[in-house]
Specification:
Organism: Wohlfahrtiimonas larvae
Number of strands: 6
Shape: globular
InterPro entries: Knr4/Smi1-like_sf (IPR037883)
Number of helices: 8
Strand content: 5-15%
Structural class: alpha+beta
Number of domains: 1
CATH class: Alpha Beta
Distance between the termini: 16 Å
CATH superfamily: SMI1/KNR4-like
Strand order of the largest sheet: 3-4-5-6
Protein name: Knr4/Smi1-like domain-containing protein
């Protein structure tokens, strides 16, 4: 099984959700253009006193994460704030995890919290009963994470679950073989 690339994921999400936006007033499920500028990233990095990985920057400069949810992974907060302001608020309430552990909370879902390691770009996750030091690596970078999420969402109803899971585990080179199967 071949995994979908970013443009195929974008097109697949558009195909599913454009009709629902008009019919049911459902928003936040597509990869829409970002309103962020490079200066917004520079200001954000100054506020957290760390640089963010380049692939994460590219994604948030290209796509609007302020209201994005894929596979029940909620990145933003329904356009109430910019995604970067949401990240500041989300992380300030968590003992400034990014300062002590160089990890930034980037998204949440029940029961997971998703972290971006600012020193190496690795994406990890933990549940409320885990310590930050026990977070499980689920992707080597943000690009892999987003491609894996998009593929799980769009292809999980296919008959080849095992092949899909094997391709995602190979893509993400994950420690946690269970995580991606729970997302299906």
């Amino acid at each position: 099984m071949k995994l979908l690339d970013v443009s195929e994921i974008k097109n697949g999400l558009d195909e599913l959700f454009i009709p629902l936006e008009a019919e049911m007033d459902m928003f936040g499920y597509r990869l829409l253009p970002s309103y962020l500028k490079t200066q917004d990233i520079i200001n954000f990095e100054a506020s957290v006193l760390m640089d963010i990985p380049s692939d994460f920057s590219r994604w948030i400069l290209e796509y609007d994460f302020s209201d994005l949810s894929i596979c029940n992974v909620q990145f933003g907060c329904n356009h109430q704030l910019s995604y970067l302001q949401h990240l500041i608020n989300l992380n300030d309430g968590n003992n400034n995890c990014y300062k002590e552990h160089h990890k930034l909370i980037i998204a949440v879902t029940d029961p997971y919290t998703f972290f971006l390691d600012l020193s190496n770009g690795i994406i990890s996750t933990l549940t409320s009963d885990m310590n930050i030091d026990d977070a499980q690596v689920i992707a080597q970078n943000f690009n892999q994470f987003m491609i894996a999420l998009g593929n799980v969402f769009l292809l999980r109803k296919t008959e080849n679950h095992k092949n899909l899971l094997a391709e995602i585990n190979q893509l993400t080179n994950t420690q946690d073989q269970e995580f991606w199967s729970t997302m299906m």
